[in-house]
Amino acid sequence: MDRLGLFHMDLTLGRMEAFWAAHGLPELPVVHVVGTNGKGSTAAFLTSLARAHGQKVGTFNSPHFVSPRERIQVNRRMLSEETWVDLANEVMAVPSGEDLTYFEFQTCLAMLAFERAGVDLAVMEAGLGGRYDATNVFKPGLTLFTPMGLDHEKILGPTLSDIARDKAGAIHEGGVALTGPQEPEAMIRLQERAEAVGARLVYAVDAAGPVDGIKLGLRGIHQTANARLALAGWRWFAAGHSLRADHATEVFGLESAFLPGRFQRVELDGRELILDGAHNAHALTALNAALRAENIRPGKVVFACLRDKNLTDMLPLIRSLTDGPILVPAMEGERAADNRAIAAAIGERATASESLEAALIEGPDVDGPTLVCGSLYLLAEFYILNPRFLTA
Hints:
Blueprint lengths: L13 H10 L6 E5 L4 H14 L4 E4 L11 E3 L2 E2 L2 H13 L8 H16 L3 E5 L16 E4 L7 H4 L3 H9 L7 E4 L4 H13 L3 E4 H4 L15 H18 L6 H9 L8 E5 L2 E5 L5 H13 L6 E4 L7 H9 L6 E4 L9 H8 L3 E4 L2 H6 L8 E4 L2 H10 L7
Parallel strand pairs: 1-5, 1-6, 2-5, 6-7, 7-8, 10-14, 11-12, 11-14, 12-13
Antiparallel strand pairs: 2-3, 3-4, 9-10
Helix pairs in contact: 2-9, 2-10, 3-4, 6-7, 11-12
């Protein structure tokens, strides 16, 4: 896996098509989750809904926090190390298996794992984009679109319209796509693609009612849209597979969903922390709204991000998260942005810290929880230190 390079990207489907032509595509029902923000949460809600109704569910998402094994789960359990290695060797044994990129390798391993486990449903979260994302090779019966926003502009952009056009490419000929709320230019791209390939585009608000009265397993006001999209997706899937969707069971499924790092509140050494993977302006806006809705004002913020993120658009949102200090730790990895430069850009309330561990204890004592956000890779460093918070 190290040799393949975690961040090596080559957005084509040629290697994936060659792999599955040699192996043979598994005949598994697939729901594809595509978008910019909320993919992991929507996949988690859908997984929980299907499991609550007795379905065996394989879930593939990214990135991982501590171990690559987190990306591939069957009924919310990681594969054993022995099974993971066995499947990895199976991938390598297929002609063209050695040509796959890191993400492609993981995607193929996931589908082999789901085939071996005999899952009733494979929930596949797209990594980057849509049309040429490795997960788009499986011809899903249903595609769910979470909100699209500006992210990875250098690869998919530069405009939201460009990004949405690429992601809309995940709609297959004659397929069905369900979408949550979208900006007008993104919705136009979805409509254009659906019309061009003779697919059906359905709005989640027409397929499922509000979930406002349910105590969702994932907190934050923005999660209501993700939960509603997942509920619409589950009902559509259930109807297509002659499964009975029971309201009480749906409520249980939504309430029991779990995904680390999404407005996750934990206690560490007597202090309350909120862990959230908001890593772009769209996600930070949602995080701000979630904090206001729950009347929470963080006493301090620990923030860091990767070099390829649009820091300029995030700056006013970062400053608005707290009236207290903002600590910017140095992160591991070649893609990490210079923490001193981030602190300088944020302004006088921001200070560079040598590490996440140091940032959590530095600064004056303040009222209110500490918010850790800005990058899933920053949260990964937290979970490496505190792995017990990775599970419900």
